[in-house]
Design goal:
heterotrimer; A: 349 residues; Rossmann fold; six-stranded parallel beta sheet; six-stranded mixed beta sheet; 13 helices; elongated; B: alpha/beta; 3 domains; 18 helices; 33% helix; disordered C terminus
């Protein structure tokens, strides 16, 4: 009996040693504390989690954490701001070395983030401003997203066109994208915005489609629709298809998903281009940034991940069907050269 | 002048084109019980609702000890000293609160302060309960009490206001004789204190016991005031109906073969078993107090409950219905008591109410044939003398008596083997009662008819045979001829026939 | 029928307002929007109003069925979005045909209704609570198979597999085809489905004895039971009707969107409940009724169409929706009580 148990222990031990050896291959030249990566605990404290973007973000965090060999804990508050703050405290109590705060409200997270800093924990924040100099912000640049899409719109349509715009005020990323739109309009007085609409009633695409139908009915001369959120773009596309205006209208958006790719690639699709940051890459960068902090490196106040322009033609030319194809065939989408010091192990592609 | 508590002059009230009160002139003296009689639809309920602030009169005035009184809400009426105990008991109590809170409810609702002083409330509630001889623990929830106790709670609650005018709207309709007696004692005491009391009832025994004067209403007007002693009850009935009421003379036919036999039936595990035959063409009245087992028997007959022991045979076959639907299928019908809670479908018209149990017979492939159901309704409307403008009138637009006729008509529209009528005269004026009774007797051939009534008058008026129940068993049976009422009443009180002589 | 003349003699002004007020309000609204936007009063615009409310309208028919038996189904929104996910899953992941997608969804809707009904009549759980529980359950359940991802062709499943199935053209036909009706490509399938279902449910509620008995249960369940009605069976039936109609709504939604979108369906629930409640006020019915429900849904559609054409932002639309509902409820409860009852 004792023999078998000892045998089991030995077997388990050698298995551990093997896997440790595997990481050691990377870890050999990693700075402290990653010379002993298995002992490093990091936590991801999430505010938003449902939807493709957040799923992909999580998978990016997971792959990068695995590449580093650190122990990742995921806390999911499901849009409960108070719970998210409590979860930060739980993570502190758990003795983690680093925390990634993913979204949330400035008001509820500010104090919790400070408590983590006070406990000697390194913190990075993604898409939430916790107003703390010790906490770098990881951002996908919404302004750049909007700029890329709109530049393509200007290339395709010249600088004089009648536009419809989908916007819901009060949502931070949409507000930042709106700033760019306002700027582009000012720089191009030939752009005539005849309608602005938008809703977040879910299913969002369905509600936006209903609105867009009305808008197209009332403004049959629209040629460009700027819908800087893929759910909006999807709704507008449904309305354009239903109104039979696919040849006349071009849609420019931001964000991308597998479903968006197939919608853009439908024959004669009005959805001309979108600008996107790969959410998995954002997740990876979040972890890498945290790792750099833990290793004592300076990352600056904010880490910005550049977006990629994706046009209908690119998708068709490369026969891209889904997000995996997109990563494989558009290298600029698969990887962002951000927060990559020499020692940083990257996830296998 | 000082003797008059309430003076009503020229009061009118109309609902749409329907003039319900057409100039009421009435005085209610202090320290007297004025009984208000009127056929269903005469306007009694509306008059009460104007006085207690539910409706506002269109014209006319009311003086309360000389002061102008025209409440726009029930709360205003109560604070002016006009307190009403309504007919439907559950309007007067909150079932989920304890007795004490119920008794003090108006004080809680209108009182100052934020926190409740439970001990003070209970002490005060106990005082009130004692004052009217209400013997319940004030900490019990009202939902645990029987109907009769709930009624007394509602009345006790009214007493808490030290009313100037107390309106009692058919307060005894669900009380036992003993409980009613307690209520009458209470009324006597209030009368002695100088409270003016308006007492609305259809029960002659109540009125004879308690009233100082009788006021009759007819067609929205006062049709007679009787205050000479002894009170002219027959005159009041005549004034209320516009004609004299003839005595009912029954012609008791030869009963046919047994339709339903109850054999060694025990309603409860510990109750004494009994047997009973219900015969073709026979009308059997089952009488007894509240809680005597009448309702349980009706439940068993109608498949809503199973007896503790014994069996039933319907035309020789064992009859053990699993549920109401099975009973109906076997031709055993029941008109339930308390029509408002158990029978009337508000929002349905007369036709839909009548054909409710038998929609299948008026439908082809599930689709209802309106001609067919209208034909049935026309027949019932004319047979029972239902007073309405059209068979598609909403049930709510009918007076209580006519609603009851519709409910009886629902089950008389189709042929049955056994028809159980549970308190068919509840809240019904004497004219409607006679109409319904006559129709029941007229159509009795071909089925056995069981009528459950608490009032002996009603039993005598309708039955071929009177069966007395107490303690969940049958205490005696009487052929309805030269009946010894004393013996019957003793059995009602639970005394075996053999013990009678010993007393 | 002879008594008809005396009965329908004359309505008082108040009764007129109660009966026709809401329809007049709707006509006024149509006139106002037609004058403010030259594109409002066109056949396509009219058809589009129907299309925009077809899904909530179908759900509202289900709400009406449960309201008739004095119940309430909070789970319809999530039932619809579950059908949206299920139909996508059947086609994209299991690679089955459109017919199977529809069949699976209808079965799921009926099952959800059955469970709701049994919870309510057998387990005696109050209707709001039972269907609230079901709502949460479905919101979670629809996300489990894909771990919260939306379903589309080429998506990567949790096990790493790439889906190959596609939304079949015959399924998308449900969401995208338009029938010719005087004008080419005028009437979308969803509008036809709404109208057909509306007529069926109306016929069932108003013309059959089953509908009659359901109304009786809603008014006085005890009386209906004593009249021999199988109250429990009809209540369960009402929830099953609600579940099936919700899944039909979900199928049409999937066909329109062309992918399985994650959504809680709360907005669908709220809009369809609003439509059914507004329906109370139509023709002074003061009770759930199918005709009123359809009118209620259209009323919301007209408002939203008109307001969007006038570039009104979404929050004013919510505000107006709420205001209409409140007005409708006042019509139903305050005004109609005062006139008639004793």
């Amino acid at each position: 009996m004792t023999l078998t148990r000892r045998l089991m222990l030995k077997l388990a031990g050698s298995a551990l040693a093997l896997s440790a050896g595997a990481t050691a291959a990377f870890a050999g030249d990693m700075p402290a504390p990653f010379d002993n990566a298995g002992d490093v605990k990091i936590a991801l404290v999430r505010y938003l989690s449902t939807g493709d973007f957040f799923q992909a973000y999580l998978s990016g965090v997971e792959t990068q954490a695995a590449a580093l060999g650190v122990d990742l804990r995921v806390f999911d508050s499901r849009q409960d701001a108070a719970l998210q703050a409590d979860m930060v405290d739980q993570a502190i109590a758990l003795g983690v070395d680093g925390i990634i705060i993913q979204h949330g409200l400035t008001e509820s997270m500010q104090d919790a983030a400070q408590r983590a800093i006070d406990a000697g924990i390194k913190v990075v924040a993604f898409d939430v401003n916790v107003e703390n100099a010790a906490i770098p912000q990881v951002e996908q640049s919404d302004r750049d997203l909007a700029r890329l899409a709109l530049e393509q719109a200007l290339v395709d349509n010249g600088n004089e066109f009648v536009a419809g715009y989908v916007y819901v005020a009060g949502i931070a990323p949409l507000d930042r994208r709106d700033e760019t739109w306002v700027g582009v309009k000012a720089a191009n007085p030939g752009i005539n915005e005849v309608a602005m609409f938008g809703t977040l009633d879910n299913p969002i695409a369905n509600s936006v489609a209903n609105q867009a139908r009305s808008v197209l009915q009332a403004n049959p001369n629209i040629t460009v629709m700027f819908a800087p959120y893929d759910e909006f773009a999807k709704g507008v596309k449904i309305a354009v298809d239903e109104a039979g205006l696919t040849d006349q209208i071009k849609i420019y958006s931001a964000d991308v998903s597998t479903a968006d790719i197939s919608a853009m690639r439908e024959p004669g699709s009005a959805w001309a281009a979108t600008a996107a940051t790969n959410p998995a890459v954002v997740g990876e960068v979040s972890v890498r940034t945290l790792a750099m902090l833990l290793a004592g490196e300076d990352v600056g106040a904010s880490v910005i991940i550049p977006p990629t322009l994706i046009t209908q033609d690119m998708l068709n030319d490369n026969d891209i069907k889904n997000m995996a194809d997109l990563s494989a065939k558009l290298p600029q989408f698969a990887h962002a050269d951000v927060s990559v010091p020499e020692w940083m192990p990257l996830p296998a592609r | 002048m000082q003797n008059t508590a309430v003076k009503i002059q020229g009061l009118t009230k109309a609902f749409g084109a329907n003039n319900v009160l057409r100039g009421i002139d009435l005085e209610l003296p202090k320290g007297q019980v004025t009984a208000l009689m009127g056929a269903n639809g005469a306007g009694k309920s509306t008059l009460v609702k104007v006085l207690c602030g539910v409706h506002v009169a269109n014209a006319g005035s009311v003086g309360l000890y000389g002061a102008h009184y025209m409440p726009s809400s029930p709360a205003e009426a109560i604070s002016a000293g006009v307190v009403t105990v309504h007919q439907s008991i559950n309007d007067g109590v909150v079932p989920d609160l304890d007795v004490a809170s119920n008794l003090m409810l108006d004080e809680l609702a209108g009182g100052a302060g934020f926190f409740m002083n439970t001990r003070k409330i209970r002490a005060k509630a106990r005082e009130l309960a004692e004052a009217i001889g209400l013997d319940v623990d004030v900490r019990h929830e009202v939902s645990e009490l029987g109907l009769a106790d709930r009624q007394l709670v509602a009345i006790a609650r009214a007493m808490a206001h030290k009313p100037k005018l107390l309106i009692l709207d058919e307060p005894t309709s669900s009380l036992s004789a003993k409980e009613a007696g307690r209520l009458f004692e209470l009324i006597d005491r209030l009368r002695a204190q100088g409270v003016a009391i308006l007492y609305i009832s259809h029960r002659s025994s109540d009125i004879k016991r308690i009233a100082d004067r009788i006021v009759s209403m007819r067609d929205g007007k006062i049709s007679g005031v009787f205050d000479d002693k002894p009170l002219d009850y027959e005159g009041a009935v005549k004034a209320m109906l516009g004609r004299a009421m003839s005595e009912v003379s029954l012609d008791i036919p030869q009963a046919g073969a047994p339709v339903l036999r109850l054999e060694n039936m025990a309603l409860q595990p510990d109750s004494k078993p009994f047997s009973l035959d219900l015969r073709d063409g026979e009308v059997v009245a089952i009488t007894g107090l509240v809680g005597s087992g009448k309702s349980e028997l009706a439940d068993v007959l109608y498949g809503q409950a199973r007896p503790a022991a014994g069996q039933m045979k319907l035309k020789g076959e064992v009859y053990a219905p699993r549920n109401q639907a099975a009973a109906i299928k076997a031709g055993v019908f029941r008109t339930p008591k308390d029509r408002a809670t158990n029978a009337v479908i508000q929002g349905f018209d007369i036709t839909k109410n009548i054909t409710l149990p038998f929609t299948e017979r008026h439908a082809v492939g599930g689709f209802i044939k309106h001609m067919s159901e209208r034909k049935t309704t026309r027949r019932m409307v004319s047979d029972l003398g239902i007073i309405c403008q059209h068979q598609s009138d909403d049930i709510g637009s009918l007076s209580g008596g006519n609603q009851q006729k519709v409910m009886v008509g629902r089950w008389m529209a189709e042929a049955s083997n056994v028809l159980v009528l549970d308190e068919p005269f509840q809240g019904v004026d004497i004219q409607a009662r006679r109409d319904i009774g006559a129709k029941i007797r007229e159509t009795a051939k071909g089925r056995a008819t069981v009528v459950m009534v608490a009032e002996m008058d009603e039993a005598v008026e309708i039955a071929d045979r009177i069966v007395v129940m107490a303690e969940h068993t049958i205490k005696g049976e009487h052929r309805n001829e030269n009946i010894d009422l004393n013996a019957v009443l003793a059995q009602v009180a639970g005394v075996e026939s053999g013990q009678l002589n010993a007393r | 029928m002879q008594g008809n003349e005396t009965k329908k003699a004359r309505l008082t002004p108040m009764e007129l307002v109660i009966k026709y007020g809401f329809l007049v309000l709707m006509a006024g609204l149509l006139l106002f929007f037609s004058l403010s936007s030259e594109f409002f009063a066109t056949p396509r615009s009219a058809v589009f109003i129907f299309q925009s409310v077809s899904i909530t309208g179908i759900l509202a028919l289900g709400v009406t069925a449960t309201l008739v038996v004095d119940g309430f189904d909070l789970s319809i929104g999530s039932t619809a979005t579950s059908a949206l996910m299920l139909s996508s899953y059947v086609m994209v992941v299991w690679e089955m045909s459109a017919m199977w997608a529809v069949v699976f969804c209808l079965i799921m809707g009926a099952l959800v209704g059955l469970v709701n009904g049994l919870l309510i009549v057998k387990m005696k759980v109050p209707d709001l609570l039972a269907t609230l529980g079901m709502m949460f359950l479905l919101v979670g359940l629809q996300r489990i198979p894909t771990e919260g991802r939306s379903i589309s062709t080429g998506m990567v499943m949790p096990d790493g597999r790439v889906t190959e199935g596609v939304f079949s053209p015959s399924f998308l036909y449900l969401g995208r085809h338009k029938f010719d009706f005087f004008i080419e490509n005028l009437i979308p399938v969803s509008v036809v489905v709404l109208l057909v279902l509306g007529v069926i449910v109306w016929g069932f509620m108003e013309l059959t004895r089953h509908g009659r008995l359901m109304y009786a249960i809603g008014s006085n369940a005890r009386a209906a039971e004593l009249a021999g009605t199988n109250v429990n069976r009809y209540k369960v039936l009402a929830y099953m009707i609600s579940g099936v109609l919700a899944s039909v709504g979900g199928i049409l939604l999937a066909a329109r969107l062309g992918r399985g979108d994650i959504a809680s369906g709360n907005n669908l629930l709220l809009d369809s409940v609003a439509a059914a409640l507004i329906g109370f006020a139509v023709l002074g019915a003061a009770k759930p009724n199918v005709f009123g429900t359809i009118i209620g849904a259209l009323f919301i559609g007209i408002l939203l169409q008109g307001l969007t054409m006038m570039n009104a932002p979404y929050y004013t639309q919510d505000f107006v929706k709420g205001a209409v509902l409140v007005v409708a409820l006042v019509f139903t409860f305050a005004l109609s009580k005062r006139g008639g009852a004793h």
